[in-house]
Fold:
Amino acid sequence: MALPVVLKAKWFWYSVLSVFCMGLWTLLGKLGTNEISARTMQFLYPFGWLPVALVCLWVRRFRPEKSAKGILYSTAIGVFGGIGGLAFFVACRTGGSTSAIVAATAMYPLITVFLAVLILREKLTWLHMTGLVFAGAAFILFSF
Structure:
């Protein structure tokens, strides 16, 4: 029996790794905010990025990128990720249900899809739109 094409694609396995790591990120975020404040979590968690950043630099032989636009986008990702992370930690600190908080914050692809259609002119199929409807339904169901 042949493997589905998607199982041979590198992007798929990197996506699986991302999902696994982000799942641990959210769980540890909830556990951490049970012990320390959201602002302290926000201050401390970037220190975990430092070893990853150093490995990335090492792989590139410590030669930074030269694209000003790419550097701007990368920095903006850090700003929005920092604000989003802080908001997530504050949400966890409020005592809400972890499953509801994670389901709510996991709705960010809806924003990405909307902006991809608007700015990048990407097209949505009926299957994509069906997936978005199910994602919205999952958010509503987890909120109860």
The chain has seven helices and no strands. The mean pLDDT is 88. The CA atoms of residues 6 and 103 lie 25 Å apart. The radius of gyration is 18 Å.
